Amino acid sequence: xxxxxxxxxxxxxxxxxxxxxxxxxxxxxxxxxxxxxxxxxxxxxxxxxxxxxxxxxxxxxxxxxxxxxxxxxxxxxxxxxxxxxxxxxxxxxxxxxxxxxxxxxxxxxxxxxxxxxxxxxxxxxxxxxxxxxxxxxxxxxxxxxxxxxxxxxxxxxxxxxxxxxxxxxxxxxxxxxxxxxxxxxxxx
Length: 188
Hints:
Layout: E1 2-5, H1 8-16, E2 27-30, H2 31-35, E3 39-42, H3 46-55, H4 57-60, E4 64-67, E5 72-75, E6 78-81, H5 89-96, E7 101-104, H6 111-115, E8 123-129, H7 132-143, E9 148-154, H8 159-176
Parallel strand pairs: 1-2, 3-4, 4-7, 8-9
Antiparallel strand pairs: 5-6, 7-8
Helix pairs in contact: 3-5
């Protein structure tokens, strides 16, 4: 796995500080290095996501690109959703890289629990995307992660609702000084 950045040195330092579970390795490199992977996860701030993928557009052709980007803005003690022109950041990324197979996932996971390997996270991950094979790939990756269950929701048209609900989740966490996550009851 390659952690990409505009600054390869910073990516290498960050990768060296990660604790791994299971097999594999993580190294740091440029965004171009990361874009050479079979599956690319975009986890940048919302206001740089489109520019980041445009810079590596040719390398993303035909690949599964997973957006976990949320367009949010802090107002007082709350985060509120912003609505990009195409309705979601996943749709903005798809428009910027039309040859990629974009899915949206991981929006509602609390960062503190993802960083804490002992958090016993038990969360559902809502997955959207227009390409059925890309959604299945994202489901497989998610289900392979301990504590996560993939829930395939449907097309990229649902991404705006999924992304904006993240503002609700984070605002609840701020208000209640908690690290909540989404768990959908009633699924087999």
